[in-house]
Write a structure and sequence with these properties.
five-stranded antiparallel sheet, globular, alpha+beta, 311 residues, four-stranded antiparallel sheet
Length: 311
């Protein structure tokens, strides 16, 4: 990157920080559908959530996200893409009242990505057909000046309601195009491909998520995905960093946490509802995942607020 590009990048980051700090709300929502702004004045502790299919950009501070045996750290001027909805654990690692963590988030809509792929000139975006290897469901990269410029213009629209209604959709398309043609293009590209291996794995993940309390045979899921059991295992782990059974366990534990936070049922009942036959096994695995026994963890969360997402 040239000195001029570096200067431009720093200027864009400075404007992005200023606008996010001024506009971020406690619920992270904005008047632009699918766009979120976040400000956090303390690091916090690791909390479990699901990623969604999103772009998350750090303008100031730093965040760490973990799934399975993979850990993703991203800081100022870096972005993260989650191409499928994954059970993750994350927290800000650098944030303070004097220098809060500031982030931009945007939902990545498969229909919008697919539309761009249909219009892409030959050679400008990843070619059609199945890639030889499935990219991970999450990736981190440095944001280019052009991507940052599009992000800044999107946030500027929050101060211009008339412009927002006309220009937000076109800037969203530009942001998606920068992602498709950037270093994480292969991951972004698969979001819009209905025949990609990631899409087939995503369907299996959704089935497990929807039927998280139900035992299943991996061979059956592999067959429904059009893969051999060995290829299914390999691709599933490539995307999620988890085996299908580990993925189901993560979903069960996260759902149990939400049930316990509501306070409506006891530990044994919740464990049974999410698929555990043994209350002691449920309690052991819950504590291994979240660091505290179920009842104590739920009481702490009710006192301190719900877990946060990727951004």
């Amino acid at each position: 990157m040239s000195a001029d590009e570096s200067d431009r990048r720093e200027a864009l980051l400075a404007e992005l920080r200023e606008r996010i700090a001024r506009r971020a709300r406690a619920d992270e929502a904005t008047s632009i559908d699918g766009v979120q702004l976040c400000a956090a004045d303390r690091p916090g502790e690791p909390r479990a959530s699901t990623s969604g299919t999103v772009l998350a950009v750090i303008a100031q501070g730093a965040k760490r996200l973990a799934i399975g045996d993979r850990v993703y750290d991203y800081g100022p001027g870096q972005y993260l893409i989650a191409s499928v909805d994954l059970p993750v654990t994350g927290h800000y690692t650098h944030a303070s009242p004097a220098e809060p963590a500031l982030g931009f988030g945007m939902i990545l809509r498969p229909s919008a990505v697919a539309s761009l792929l249909l219009e892409a000139p030959a050679g400008a975006a990843p070619p059609p057909g199945r890639p030889t290897a499935v990219p991970p469901g999450i990736g981190v990269a440095d944001a280019s000046p052009d991507l940052l410029d599009a992000l800044v213009r999107m946030v500027r629209l929050l101060d211009s309601p008339d412009d927002r209604h006309v220009l937000a959709a076109s800037i969203e398309r530009e942001i998606l195009w920068r992602l498709l043609t950037g270093p994480l293009g292969a991951t972004a590209w698969q979001i819009g491909r209905s025949d990609s291996a990631l899409t087939h794995i995503g369907r299996a993940m959704r089935w497990i998520t929807d039927h998280y309390s139900t035992p299943f045979r991996v061979e059956t899921l592999a067959h429904s995905s059009g893969m051999s059991p060995s290829a299914f295992h390999r691709n599933f782990h490539a995307v999620t960093a988890l085996s299908p059974i580990q993925f189901q366990k993560q979903i069960r534990l996260q759902r149990s946490r939400l049930l316990l936070m509501s306070g409506a049922e006891d530990v044994a009942t919740v464990g049974h509802r999410v698929g555990y036959d043994s209350t002691s096994q449920f309690s052991r695995e819950y504590r291994r995942q979240f660091g505290l026994p179920p009842r104590r963890d739920a009481a702490r969360l009710r006192a301190g607020g719900a877990p946060t997402g990727v951004m």
